[in-house]
C-alpha cells in the first residue's frame, strides 16, 4: 500500500537493526484517516472471507483493529490481554507469546465468551517480525474451534521471515507494507515490490 509506505518513509524512524518507530501515526499517536484507508484495503484483500470477528493483541493492534472492523460490517473486535485482571471472569483460552519489541514472554488470554467454533476470524496486528505473536493468536483461535480466515498486518519485517513461514503453512496473510531492509545509520527503508 503506497500510502503507508510513503508515510513510513516520511515519518518512520529506524532506531536500530530490526526496530522501526512509527509511533507518530500508527501505534502511539494514531492517524485515523490513514488507518481507515488501511481498513478499506484489508476489506478489499479479504472480501471473499466470511469474517464475523476481528482478533488482535493489546495494545498496539487495538486501534487498527477497531478501524478495520468498520469495513467488515462493524464486526466485534476481540483483543487478547497480556495480563489477568480482576474484571476478567469465567473460562479463558490461554497461550504464551514472546514479544520481539518487549523482549519478554507474556501470558496471553481471551475469554471463552468471545471466541467460539462459529466464529470466522480475521487477525489484525501492527507489526509482524518473527511471527511469535501471530502464532499465539492462531493457537487461541484454534483452541476455540473458530476458523482463521486471514491475517492482516500493517508492517511486515520481511527480513525476519515470520510472514514467509505463515504463508508456507497455508495462511492467507496480507501485509500492507513489507520491509526488505532498514539501515539504522542512514534511516533508509527498502520495501518489497508488490507488497
UniProtKB/TrEMBL annotation:
Any single Pfam family the record assigns to this protein: Pribosyltran
Q: Which GO terms describe its molecular function?
A: xanthine phosphoribosyltransferase activity
Q: What enzyme class is recorded for this protein?
A: transferase
Keyword flag Cytoplasm: yes
Subcellular locations according to the entry:
Cytoplasm
BP GO annotations: purine ribonucleoside salvage; xanthine metabolic process; XMP salvage
Using the record's annotation, list all stretches that form the Phosphoribosyltransferase domain.
26-155
Which EC number(s) does the record attach to this protein? 2.4.2.22
Substrates-to-products reaction catalysed = XMP + diphosphate = xanthine + 5-phospho-alpha-D-ribose 1-diphosphate
Note the NCBIfam families from the entry.
Answer: PRK09219.1 (NF006671), XPRTase (TIGR01744)
Q: Can you tell me which family this protein belongs to? A: Belongs to the purine/pyrimidine phosphoribosyltransferase family. Xpt subfamily.
Protein name, per record: Xanthine phosphoribosyltransferase
In its UniProt entry, the species of origin is given as Ellagibacter isourolithinifaciens
Tell me the name of the encoding gene: xpt
